[in-house]
Write a structure and sequence with these properties.
Elements lengths: L1 H16 L3 H6 L6 H80 L3 H18 L2 H13 L10 H4 L2 H43 L6 H23 L12 H4 L2
Helix pairs in contact: 3-4, 3-7, 3-8, 7-8
């Protein structure tokens, strides 16, 4: 009898120690498989859209880069042409000045000899020659030389550079376009890196379901979320293409 009573007491104690079914259900994990799949699906959609956006913006940067490089080459060619024209004008004015200087010598000789008729004729020749054969830059240099008692208009400060102003402007513009193209190339490469990060996010989210253990799933999901956040933050630091606004992508390519 004592043994039976002891066995009954053990069974009752064990029964009291058993966890009710309701308690087991209440201890279910905070993130169920269904919630996890929903979160993965949402993150997949977000990552896909952001990846498409980054790819598009990177392509725009690449297109602008090509345009700037092409414009830079064309502008450099125009600058070379302008330089050649400036050099020809410079040589032409220098030859014109040599001729004009000979006229001045003849004029001085005629005045010294008292030949007024010849002096008047040479003066008319000089005026006509100035109208037909010298440029505005040489005329400015001659005026400067007369005002400052110089015998050579090409001694005027900045005289030579005046012939190549247009060429220098073209070259400067070409360099600026080249630098803009380089900056667009850097931005395009940055967006490619962002696309790689989004692709890594998509890969991690895609393999979450292959793990049967919930902690492993959560670990992979956490890594994917971190990579996604890093990619978004990095993308926000990269400037958009010049002239681009968020809602004008239809007008942007016009």
């Amino acid at each position: 009898m004592a043994k039976k009573e002891n066995e009954k007491s053990k069974h009752s104690t064990a029964a009291n120690c058993e966890i009710p079914d309701g308690a087991i259900k209440s201890r279910s994990t905070f993130i169920s498989s269904k919630k996890l799949e929903t979160a993965v699906a949402i993150l997949l959609g977000i990552a896909t859209l952001l990846s498409a956006w980054a790819t598009w913006i990177g392509t725009l940067h690449s297109g602008i880069q090509s345009i700037n490089f092409t414009k830079s080459n064309n502008m450099a060619s125009e600058g070379t042409a302008e330089y050649n024209l400036g050099l020809q004008l410079y040589l032409s004015d220098y030859m014109a000045w040599n001729t004009l200087r000979d006229y001045y010598y003849e004029l001085e000789a005629a005045k010294d000899g008292g030949d007024k008729a010849k002096a008047e004729l040479i003066t008319k020749k000089i005026e006509e020659f100035k109208k037909q054969s010298i440029s505005e830059m040489l005329a400015e240099g001659i005026e400067w030389s007369e005002e400052n008692g110089e015998d050579n208009p090409f001694n005027m400060p900045g005289m030579t550079e005046k012939y190549f102003v247009s060429a220098q402007d073209k070259v400067d513009e070409s360099r600026e376009l080249l630098e803009e193209g380089k900056r667009d190339n850097t931005k395009s490469d940055s967006y490619r890196l962002v696309t790689v990060l989004f692709s890594l996010t998509l890969f991690l989210l895609g393999i979450v379901g292959t793990f049967k253990n919930m902690p492993n799933r959560l670990t992979v999901l956490s890594i994917a979320v971190v990579v996604l956040i890093v990619a978004v933050i990095y993308m926000c630091t990269i400037p958009l293409p010049t002239g681009f606004r968020n809602m004008n992508f239809f007008d942007f390519n016009k």
